[in-house]
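Annex B, item 7. Sequence and structure tokens for protein A, then protein B.
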Amino acid sequence: MSEGSGNENAAGAEATAEAEATAEAEATAEAALMAEAVAVAYQSDDEVEVEAGSVEDQEVVGDQEEEPAEGEAEQQDEGEAEDADVDGDAMSVENAENESDSGGNPEETAAADRRQATKKELTQIIDKWEQQQTQNGYDPVPTLRSLAEIFEREKDVYRRKDPDPLDSRHPYRADPSCQYGLLLKLLFRKDTFMSKLLNDYLRENYFSRQNVSRSSLELNILACRLILEIMPGMETSAVFQTAEGDGTINRIYSWAEDSIEPLQSYATGLLAEAMEVSDIAINFRDQNIRLVPKMIKRLHMLLAISKSATPDVNNSMHNQSADNSAAGMLSWVACASNASAPQSPQHNGSGLAASSSQHGDASNMSILFENSRDAFPVSRYYKRMYIPLHPPTADTSQMLIMRFLTSLGEYQEFLAMAFENNVMQLIFGYLENLDRRDTCLAYEVLKYLASLLCHKKFALEFISHGGLELLLKVPRPSLATTGVSIAIYYLAYCEDAMERICSMQRPLISELVRYALWILGRCHDSSKCHATMFFSLSFQFKVILEEFDAQDGLRKLYNVISVLKILDPSHNDSDNDSDINEDVECASRQMVRHVCVALKRYMEAHFFYKYNSFLCQHNAASSSPSSTHYFNQNPTVAAKLTFDQLHDQIRTLQEHTSIRAHWQPVDQLMKLGGITMLLRIIAFSYDWVNSGRSETVRSALDVLSVCCIIPRVYVVLCERLLMLDKTTTSGFCSVLGAAAGEITSDAEVIKSALAVLCHCVCSPIIRKDSGTSLIKFGNSSRKNKANHKYAEELIERVWESVCSNNGIVVLLSLMQTKGPITDADCIRGMACRALAGLARSDRVRQIVSKLPLFAGGQLQTLMRDPILQEKRAEHVIFQKYALELLERVSGKTKPLNNPLDPSLSNMHKANVIAQTRIQYNKQQLYQLIFEHLESNGLSQTAQMLQREVGLPLQTPTTRSFHQSPFDYKTLPSGSSSLSRNRLRSRMQDVNAAIMGTELNRSFGEDSSPAGGASSSNVGDGVSIPNFGCLNTTQTPIKIRRTDRSSVSRSIQKQLMEPGGSSAGLPDDGQLHPKRITLNTIVTEYLTNQHSLCNNPVTTCPQFDLYEPHKCPDPKPSRLLSSNYNLTSRHARTQAGFNTTRFDRRYVHTHFSPWRSIRSADYEDLEFTCCDLVGKYIIVGTQQGDGRVFNMNDGVEQFFSNCHNFSVDAIKANRAGDLVITSSFWRTPTSILWSIADDEFKLKLRLPDVTYCEFSQTVQDRLLGTQNECATLFDINTGSKVASFTPTIPNLYTKNRATLCRTDELILSDGVLWDVRSGKEIHKFDKFNQCISGVFHPNCLEIIANTEVWDLRTFHLLQTVPVLDQRNCTFSPMHVIYGASLGADRDHDMETTTYDTSFNVLDAYDYSSIATIDVKRNINDLSVSANGSLIAVVEDYSGYESKQETYVKIYAVGVKKSERSEEEDDEEVPDSDEDGSDTGSENTFSLGPNFMGFPLLRNLNGSDNEGDGDLDEDDDDGDLLDTDDEMDDDDGSDNGDDEGDFEDVFEFFDRSSSDD
């Protein structure tokens, strides 16, 4: 068939012959080079086993199945110069690149010329086809033959590079430098040709439809051959999508069932590809049922022919390999002398004759064997890399049949056929005595075997017939090793099969583990993945686990991912980015996923056996023989534990593990750097986008959870990790990020991360060190003290690391989570447990006690009901740890019996009541007893009592008219029960403490006979059953009423107490009930009255039994009423009291609009920010301008363009001659301007600085903010003075570095710095994502969003909820303005929410003074130097109106007039003449002594400022005019309105001296 190719392709004969001659010469040279290289590699079979383990760490993760020397000649000739072939769109560009790449090397030049000639030849053939295919009677056979030969030749080159046989990607994606993939891309662009190839050329009547009397057989054969050659680059589902409807697949079935060779084999190969599509396999189920037995029988016949070859042929092949050896016959000739394989019916002569006569195609198969003899001339060192499709050989036919059977092997309906047709014997026949030089057919057989091993029955049969021994005899390295990796994976998937394997002899198991570990280190990525999954499924079996450890398997498993570039930060340089493409990165991520899962199974299996050993030791002294027998057994398979069971056992093991413990799996993992690698995987997974990311992170976290049994792991979690961007982060930072849902929102990942945190922060400090301890360590007191100290230091380091990485805010947010709804209750419980463990730290406990979640009672709301009613068990756990957390925060360790209302205030109240000493008048008690006896007819007993105690003589009805709310005798029985129930329900938090304290007190009647008699009488009284009935209705526990224990209310409460510390407490209470006396009953009755008080006190006078008790309520402070009462304040001032604070609060409740500047008066202008300087206001605009306005008349003085984008912040110094502007948009930039001659002059440009401010004292420096970094610049020189970059940043989104009032401290990104030394002082905990914080003017506190921190102790002083997400602006009048500014919001207007009001707070105690609603969005707020004026940039954007901005100036302390309020409610009129003042007729101009003090004088200067410019009223800079000029503007004042400000004038005049 190949001899006539030149004659039929007449048009391109010369080019084709020239290319073929060049290819043959190169192939001969390459074969010689390869033979020499492979000869050295295969001199000994044992060389591979002797290689040191250290070499595995340095092996390249790719082509590792063959020896390094193999294929080097081909890669040098064909791989180095193919980089220019990646882009096949422009042929001219490729020509230029090939010329430049080839350089002066003759070999590279020849290879580049050959590739270029091949592409040119392909293009010419396709172009010729396009021109001639429309002609009538066109013959496409020569074209198809030429194309098939081209692709076979290039595919041969591609296969010699030993690609991953299981890699189903397009060859161009697998190897962008290969010519084969590039030619496939060029061919697939020809849609017309591909349509003809897949539809018309597969028709049996193609020529007859063209009115040509010719058979289409040759055309069909070439079409099938070409489709099979180009199939690796085609989408199978797309190829056979149309073929299913037009009958093409049915035609292929007929060819595969009965046709001549090679059409029958090629058709079988096409069916194998089609059956990969499950829909096609299901639709053609009947045809497959008919065809599968025939294919199996055909394999039997082909194998029988191979086995029937005489030994003489084998000897002649080895002696005269150059003459008559064929690479296609090595697979069956080499096995001819084998006699130990399972015999099949075709192995004898009669069977062969019967088979030949049955099929009637012996002559058809003879063609295959003839081609096998003439296929390849090889030497004895030749190693076949693949089975060619042309010329078709016996191996080709068997390979295609195997592929067809493999695609159907997983279907259950074909399993019976496999047993009926002796597939097991067939597979054994193929795998016996394999030649390592030719395992291509064995690879296909192993793939078919793997598809059958997914059936449990076949897997067990395979193991029982010695299949495992046969698998382990497959030579390595070879192509068949990849098939072995798939087979052992499917074996491990069947647990019953693995149990039988584990019961075999130990040497066989050892060899299995050795084989899998060899695959793990030296094969393709697909084989490594299968070997890794094999181990992950088989680690549960103890014998596999032991062999894995004995052969250093953990190191080899770790090395699989240690060499991956995606986990190595050093490979992230710019010059190495091209080495990792998208496919390699995706494959590496999948490898990481499989290894993490395997490590998880490895650690969990070790943990199971370790925990079982611990239980055996712990229960060795048990008296129960059944428990002893249970714990002494030696399990061989690790049980599968649930999430809760696993982590409960980890906590148990932590308690019994020494602080300096060692455990071999964890020790080896730490020695290899596995803990750090797992943390790096978690950190790097932020940027991964793949389907298995959640499983990867969860598995890594689960490994860390088990490793937390050994405390030394905590040190690794606290250390810093190097990230891909060269930054460092903490291990706990990655774990907290996973817990917060930043990596993925998968609930399982969140729970695994919380489990790691719980095991670390809740780790016991005092550990049990008994004889059952896991660790063999000395018990001397000196070592115990050292261990205890080390444990405290270690756990404190863990707490500090978690807090430094904002662990508190993460746990708080998880405690309030509501989703996912099915796991929210479990997540809440775990987060609460972690926070309770973290609260053992004094620092954390102090911070948590001030948060609204605890101080405001929010936690009690969460404790009431679960998120999902079906998850009540998880909610009970949450309640348990919430109570534990409340006890630690409040310092109260007494038991709480009402878990629904354990707020801090109620706990304090219960503690006060419990400490109160109850005293009462005994004579009143005797009088009540006397009346009770009289009412029951016991007159003599009553008179005796009256005489003995000396009761006054009185009528017994004197007390009957007293109706007290606590006198139950006069109320109905139902009301009595309800009232008593109400009293007792209010007292549930203190009953245990009352009974514990009162029983220890000695009263006379407790030990006297009278007291005993009284107690006995009371026990028989009527009121006692009411106590019992009440308690029985409150608890589901049934209590007997036959003895004193029936009225023991405290004992019943112990029974219903949740979460008791010891399981034996209820039994002890029942065995030793507390004695109930009349004194305890009266005391409890009075304590119930005391608990009803709103403000109980500890020291109380004697209780009156006849009158209800009530503690006095605190008197309201008269100072509060003085806040708004002018008369009261004036009177107190005359009396000598300081009322400045109340005056300030009164003044700052009134704000009157005084001047407005509208952006509508200027073309295309929008105001964004402003700053008040003297009588001028500097305004920044959206257009990047800086504009200066006069506040008196609203007239613009001058302006200048400062930025290309919007000005987001503008600030002037106190002198007014320097202005700093900042722009966040696009390229962040801050610019310092000097103002002179009514002009902005550039002084200093600070690129990449998002925000900048002046220093506070001398104002000769600038503090700039660059993300989390703060930089100090010198204004005069423009140089950088210092830079402050935190070690652990908080990463606030709106970080603004700021200086304290004395310029000694810097606060940036929540980190406090010392300016002089440049050292980091303290990192404040992060409780919000945006605002980093500012210094209070008193230099003693820091306000970060709602939290107020003490600079002296770094304690959280309080929280101010009204400041949530609001920027603080301080006034010199000791007032804080809080506003949510538009300049700090996102530029995405669709997601932006605005606030139209600002809050006014007292700077002393952060109490709210007023909330002012301006009815427009606030962009910025500025306060004048004396605090008398504030400027607000307001943004009004109506639904149908044009967006308009205002700069409105408010006068502080001035009430709005009626006209001003009306105009403020309405829209601004369009007919304003000046357009700059709203209601300016009834306002005033800004004079030099406005409100009684100079404009620039700082009223707060006497306290803290100490600035020297208080008296410099006339020399304040270029923006300030003289007093004469300011007096000229006073003519616009309205004299009637000035009378409204007389009281304000007096306040501001006085405040400058009082403050």
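Protein B:
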Amino acid sequence: MGNSYAGQLKTTRFEEVLHNSIEASLRSNNLVPRPVFSQLYLEAEQQLSSLEGSRADNEEEEEEEEEESSESSSPVSYQMKPPPEGCCTTDGFCQAGKDLRLVSISNEHIEVPSGFLLVGAKSPNLPDHLLVCAVDKRFLPDDNGRNALLGFSGNCVGCGKKGFCYFTEFSNHINLKLTTQPKKQKHLKYYLVRNAQGALTKGSVICWKGAEFRGRQSSPSTCSSTLFQLPESSGLSGSTSSELLPAANPGAPAGAPQTAAAIDHIPSTAAFSSAVYNGKESPKQQVAKNNLSALTKPSVLGTLTNSGPPKKRHKGWSPESPSSTETWNLQLNPQAPNRIKNDGGSLSSLPHSALVGPASSPMVGSGEPVSVPDNLLKICKAKPVIFKGHGNFPYLCGNINDVIVSPLLYTCYRNSQSLSRAYEQYGTSTIQPISEEMQLLLTVYYLVQLASDQVPLIEDLEQIFMRSWRESHLSEIRQYQQAVPQTFPQVPSQVAPVTSAQLPWLAGLAASSCNDSVHIIECSYSLAEGLSEMFKLLIEGKLIKTNYVVIICASRNRAIDSCIVITGKYQARVLSESMLTPSDYQKEVNYQLVTGKVESLGSFFNTLCPEGDIDLLLEKFYQENQGHISSSLSASVTKPTALNGTGAAACTSYEIERHQIRPFQLAVAQKLLSHICSIADSSTQNLDLGSFEKIDFLICVPPSEVTYQQTLFHLWHSGILLELGLEKEHLTKQRVEQYVMKLDAEAQIKFKVFLQNSMQNPHTLFVLIHDHAHWDLMSAMHSLYPQTELSTGLVDRLLNCREVKEAPNIVTLHVTSFPYALQTQHTHISPYNEIHWPSSYSNGVDLYHENKKYFGLSEFIESTLSGHSIPLLRYDSSFEAMVMALGKRFPRLHSAVIRTFVLIQHYSAAMMAVCGLSQMKNYTSVETLEITQNLINSSRQCPSGHGLMVVLRIPCTPLAAVAYERLYNVRERLALEDNFEIILGNPNSGITIGKHFVEQLKVWQKIEDVDWRPQTYLELEGLPCILIFSGMDPQGESLPRSLRYCDLRLINSSSLVRTTLEQELGLAAYFVSSEIHTEKAVVNDVLESDPEKLSSTDNEDEEIAMEGSTAEKRSPMKRERSRSHDSASSSLSSKASITAFCSESSPPLTAAGDTAKSVHQVLSNNAEETANNHERQKQKVDKEAQTTTSKHLPLVTEQLDMKQNIKSAQISITSSSSSPFSSSSSSSAPTHNSFILQTSQCSMTKASKQPPIVFLPKLVYDIITSTDSSGLPKSSSLLPYHSVMWASSFRPLMSKMMTCTEQSLYYRQWTVPKPNHMDYNNRNEGRMDTFHPRRLLLSGPPQIGKTGAYLQFLSILSRMLIRLTEVDVYDEEEINNNIREESDQYYHQPEDMWPDLETFKKMPFDYTIHDPKYEDASLICSKLQTINSEDRSTSRRQEDMYTRRQTTRMRLSKYAAYNTYHHCEQCHQYMGFNPRYQLYESTLHAFAFSYSMLGEEIQLHFIIPKSKEHHFVFSQPGRQLESMRLPLVTDKSEDYIKSPTFTPTTGRHEHGLFNLYHAMDGASHLHVLVVKEYEMAIYKKYWPNHIMLVLPSIFNSAGVGAAHFLIKELSYHNLELERNRQEELGIKPQDIWPFIVISDDSCVMWNAVEVDCSGDRKSDYTWTERNVSLKQILQHIEATPNVTHYALIGMRKWSSKTNRAEIKEAFSCCHVHDFIMLNVDLTQNVQYNQNRFTCDDVDFNLRVHSAGLLICRFNHFSVMKKQIAVGGQRSFHIKSKVSDTPVSISPAQYICAPDSKHTFLAAPAQLLLEKYLQYHSHRFFPLSLKNYSHPVLSVDCYLNLGPQIAVCYVSSRPHSLNISSSGLTFSGLLLYLCDSFVVASFLKKFHFLKGATLCVICQDRNSLRQTVVRLELEDEWQFRLRDEFQTANAKEDRPLFFLTGRHI
């Protein structure tokens, strides 16, 4: 090699070290490159000495060599000049003693002369610090490492000394203390720059020529000698490394064994890593692997040496140094994605069109042509695949059909050299792509470690390149990532990369260890000579063992040319076939079938059979056994049916599953609903749920007839159509078909109808459900398929059409198990609109209690890992071996054809073997024999004939037809046509099965329809059958519970795409009953496997007998092999491997004694292993096994059958028995037959309790079961879908911990659709605009129940819409109707529209309260009345009133009032939320007026939106609010409401019904919300376009009385202002409109009664009630004649029980509530009581009436009140003032004795008083309890004393109207806050019972005494000191005081 060494190289050790180091490095998971190469050349104690020969005389290389050599072999050390006497020699300081360290002086001001730059120098003694120097920039290099003047000029920034002309002198001054010749190139490392804060920080590296950029030079100036140099800081010692490693790579525990041949363990190294091990531990376990750092071009930050002593380490670094450990901590930096995804997928996972490079197409050849030899395919038995690599590729001529040229590797190389966007932030100046030499070298390493049965994957290579690149640039990446770089070790000096001259040598070195698997050809001139040589070697047969030929043309003066030729027959076949598109694949297979190329295969099979043609053998068998078989078969098959008919022995374990919603499905449906609601609630206004009245839907399914029928079946049984009201009872199938659309040629017609319906019904929400949504995502414009296929691109044409996108009433829901193709950078679906199937467990807690366990892909993979004796995933090695052998024999046949024919052959032979042709066992595999035997025997284990289903997946339809025909014929010849069915499942057609089996299914499923035929696979439950499942992709078909085997050995394993693989495995996804069944003698869970599986695989047959005795069978070696899931006892290799298939059809194989012995051994062995079986059963079986008489043997084997050790094994002892079905033969005693029927369990029932077993191709099995470095199955890192591609090779690794959401975000970032994908054109600069707002994606594992979930979603969505359009309104009959004055006199006619004023004045006032909300209020007496005491005795608790009041559900009409949740187009502007309008600005206006009763000025605030300012008058100069405009009485307008509406509200900013736009029918109106000051902000937020009247802060704790009081006072004050203002305009004061409307915030709809009096007699009339607009009602009332003469106008409370009498009198003079029109002019002197919380409207009504004013109720109008559970009166909570803990306080505690130590309450005194009197007034008025004829006299106020006490209201005002009290004797007197109108003489008019009680209530104790004196109460009433009370308020809360006394 041109080097002389101080030590001698040991050849054997060299080879060993080289081989193991390559292997170990390729498996390494560690990120940081580690230097190891030194061990290859010398023993551990020897060092590298001087180099000779081809060393280039290059200054920089000399420097590096000198610097990096270790102490023992260093040149003569450099003697520094001794420092002057007395000067400073401290490291980091100059000789003048000034600090030069960057960390110390970074913030100081440093004067830098013009032309100088600040640079950082490295001192060997301070590896963690930079010393600051000022250097003339002329002596520094430019960006290319050139043009630096020789010499030096610099200044010391510490002491300011200038003019250093020699670097030696300068290095002495700054105390570098060097042991080598000082050179500026070595020690001046970085430019220093100021950051944003002005601090000095480390900048970019100074690019000295040859150090940093040496890797980019193409000239081979660096010789191989530089290969062995180590970086400056060569890391940690071996002892430290093993401790630190786990921290650095948490994913791989130290010492973890790593699988040798796994494809996915890619090189973690930046270069050729050669881990040395000393022979004591294998490279598998060696964790601290080592790396050749010298091969990397970048800097190496943290490195590990080998486990021996360190070779060369920089003096400043020791194994214990803190900087060493810091190096490792860097790896944990979360900002850096430090692992790259290992993406599988074969080299051809992308079609050529997507991969062809730029203008210089890789396929275009150059230079001299290369002739492809004739007969190449014939000689080589495979078409070589040539992957074009770097540089120019020659032309090929001659027999070019026998080679395949691919650009895939070229594209991979090119992609890996383009920096990703993700790394652009680091700045491209210092981070360069991986070199071509390194790419090729890494490719060789990768190929070397591939096993002979593995195929190279392009994703593996990409990942290797990515990892190498990242590791080689760790330092630069981290430098840009870290904010404070000083805390990390400095970047060491750069080392030389691989040169093109070294490349062939290194590649050959790597390939030398792989036993000729990889062959390197080096050419000197061009690739043409290498290719020619390769073809020559192929023809000569010299590359038989070679799988890969790497051809390198490495010239010294130009870039390398390279290509890689795949010559391995298996690899070349897989790679060439993987380049076919699905349609090309079908065409190729079809062509081979049609042209008869497969006939050679058939004739070859016949030569294998010893007796010639299998067909002849079958025919012979058929002729010999025809008579006997038919009779025995009829006995075995028809008998169970007969038994079933008579009821003697029907199968009890079979049950039809009923349609039910599982907890999971309900949870998913609710998640979908919440997403729909969030779209509706968002401010984007994309979905107005409030405007929809009903739901309609259309389900789109792929064009599979079975999937279509299956969806119809689910839809029919869900009952959803009836629930949504879309269909009536007596549903027909034709009606159901309208809601499901097959995406075939006829789809467009059905879809057009759907679109028309959506346009015609804007108030119906249409849900478009796209099921199996990953199918056909082809763009309608870029279809690669022929246009004759109408279905191609149909999804894009229909679901992405403009009408669907723009329709505001269509929501699209994509449903799929494989959402990856819909999660690209251009997806239409927002990540917020994705719903993922929830996990069943969270932190070990079962979230949804399901009675079934789901088995999906992860559970299947888990079964292969967890030490199961039976893995659920397996491959068939003997099958694979035969396929591989035949592949070499028939190179021109597609492997799909070969695989299919081999498998058909195996099934045919297995069926023959089971039927008695035992010699055929040698021509099938163990697995196929197991499947066939269990299938054929299954129906006879069940009394009803239930059996197993075997799914045989054959994607290619023509091959499926061939398989069906062949198996059908074999079955007929063997007379098994009534034993099991063979079904050809074609996606385009329905299911066809024989009549015999149809009848069986009808009996089992209790179907009486004569014409019934199964239409879905689910309906085949229990049918023993082979289902040949064809079609390129499964299209959502579900399989029944009787599925036992899923044979996927024929799936297309060359097209490795995640979706394709997972959907094939999804066929086997399965629900297993998770209850433990007692009959299943099992303790463990299903996952621990059923007992039948514990002793063996379900290949029990394989395990039962090998050659010789069964004792050999249980050898550890066999157990080991069964764990590897390779059923290796191949009958092809060992003809006698199955000598005792103990099936019921087996002829005698051994003598009786041997059989008994072997059975006993099997049993005893099994009994030991089957630990989960019951002890009792085990002993019983063992005991029986010891008997050797033939009589007991069938019984023994039946017991075995229960444990499934020998499936239905019936060992016939009598050799004379020739029946192939000996269970019915005479060799078994009849008694045992009956025993069998009782004990054997139905196979189908067993099958439904365990997941199916899946057989896979070996290639797929390896991908599925291997994991990448993150622990994810390798399949999940494959390309997700064939019409997407990776956005970049530079993508991070997927993590095992990723949730579905994170996985979605990963694909959204790292995948882009190809031009043929429907999302390709969905690009927009504004990223959010590309998402469609009404599109959702539901993803969940296959067969988990997504259909049920989305049907349930439709159901709850419909219920919610109905709920949204409905409200609960109070529906209560009026109370106290029995007290109503019944009179024959009616003042008005029923049809009268308005009251007549004169007539109305004559109507008496009805004092009685009839509003049902006051059912718990005191009755008001109007005259002497006798009331049945029981009528009023039903009192309720106040808290219960709201929950127990009767409501009814009402549909909202178009005239309803709405809360804030309502959004619709019409009222956007009204609400102020329309995004087209600027958010409404509001202004705050103060409005003050004086009120004498309060004795102060009232200050109110108005918040007036700009859009509402026209309702107000402002002063001109200052824009002060002057008044609110009022119309004239004479104004008439159809579109205008004259009365301003005031709505007092609290606590209902969301739920209050303030949106009156629809109620007013769009009419202009003035609406003011009256809110408390502390709620102003929240109300303004929710109602930005409403006028707010904000009450003064003193009213924050007041009740509704205060709001009413202020509304009325403000309105009167405003009336006065308006009269004055308009008087100046010549308008009379009485012409100003005096009415306001005061409305509750819960009034939702208004109704009008229409009376029809067209009958003959006047008393005959009919009436109807309907919803009308509030506008109509208000305009009607405002148009009342003489309207200004009425003080109060109201309407009825709506009730469904309104009686005729209420309607007959059109108008009433009585109490009005909830919604009133108030004449503020007439009621000027009547006030609301501002202190009141309850009953203030009753109190006010009584005051108005007593003032002689008219109160009119329009009985033909009614208001509906919505039940609102929040806010209102319930916002007042009475709690203790002392503690914050909520303690319930009873009303009895609301009052206390004055000066007592009672707990004070935090509530207004008035509220405590009212509540106390409501519940406990009987303590004050004991005589009044239920004494309705002697009411309590209440003066000037109405207080609720509870329902059992009646009150009589009187007014003390002069001239007031009061009832005649002459005949009344009162039981009590209530004086509440008496004013001066109440005098002693007034009270003396009334008479009281003896013992009647008095209660006087005043503001304070003083006024209480004054009132007693002023009213002379002591004359008639007796008072005691203890009869004084107060409300339970503290003094500062101003309690109310009251005094009680007794009448004398």
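Comment on protein B: The mean pLDDT is 77.
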